[in-house]
Amino acid sequence: MRAMTDGAKGNGMTEAKIILAAAAAAAVLSVAAAGGAYLALSGSDERIARCDGGDGAGGLDTLGTEFTLTRDDGTRVSDKQVFDRPTLLYFGYTSCPDVCPLDNARNAEAVDILKSQGRDAQSIFVTVDPGRDTPEVLARFADSFGGAVIGLTGSDAEIAAVSKGWRIYSRANGGKNDRDYMVDHASNTYLVMPGNRTVDLFPREDSAEKIAATVGCNLDVAA
Fold first, then answer.
1. Closest Cα to residue 150, out of 80, 83, 60?
2. Which of 4, 75, 142, 160 could be bridged to 151 by S-S, CB 3.0 to 4.6 A?
3. How crowded is residue 83: how many other Cβ atoms within 10 Å of its Cβ?
4. Helices and strands (H and E) in the chain: how many
5. Confidence category of residue 56, pLDDT binned at 50, 70, 90
6. What's the CA gap between 58 and 210, in Å, rounded?
């Protein structure tokens, strides 16, 4: 009887060791899998964080819309034709006394920095004042930035639709008969990559160097 009891104990201890070993192995595999997942996620987050030079937040990928507008040379262009390279997209109006000229000068400087590095980029200015900003007026405005800015206009309905696509607020102060009226408008610059993908935005205080670095980073990641 004693021998049988000892044997039973021995078998029980052996089974317990097997169960414990199996549990330990499973725990090791679980930790390894979790670690691998963490590393993969961390790597992805790191790649995203590398290009987080602007003030972009969640939801940027929902911005944008298809459009056809009139370029400052009079030709009609679609969003697919416009966004064929990294684009700094800005909404404003040519009669703006200070904000729009300063912001577009900065954007033009960012494009020049990128071009000096052998990177292709452009700056697009979409008017929120199509009644006054004809292609000819836009051409004179764009030319003042050394050719680094391209102007786009359209009908009231077309401008309203593209503004809605990027959630741009604008409001004219004064009647349309007053040729000197001012227009309140948002002043962020958006970074739109080919395929009409909005990936970042830059507030007014961001420098040309910071913008150029962020655009360059996005080009590197996409390469």
1. 83
2. 142
3. 20
4. 6, 9
5. low
6. 20
Q: CATH number, domain at 69?
A: 3.40.30.10
Neighbouring CB atoms inside 10 A of 64's CB total 20
pLDDT in tens, 71-103: 999 999 999 999 999 999 999 999 999 999 999
Nearest to 100 by CA among 131, 57, 129: 129
- Whole-angstrom distance, CA of residue 15 vs CA of residue 27: 18
Domain match, 31 and 70 both: no
Whether 184 and 202 map to the same domain: the answer is yes
Range of the domain at 42: 1-50
In 3D, which of 149, 57, 141, 168 has the Cα closest to residue 106?
149
DSSP class of residue 133 equals -
Its pTM stands at 0.75
Please provide the DSSP assignment of 126-139 as one string: EES-TTT--HHHHH
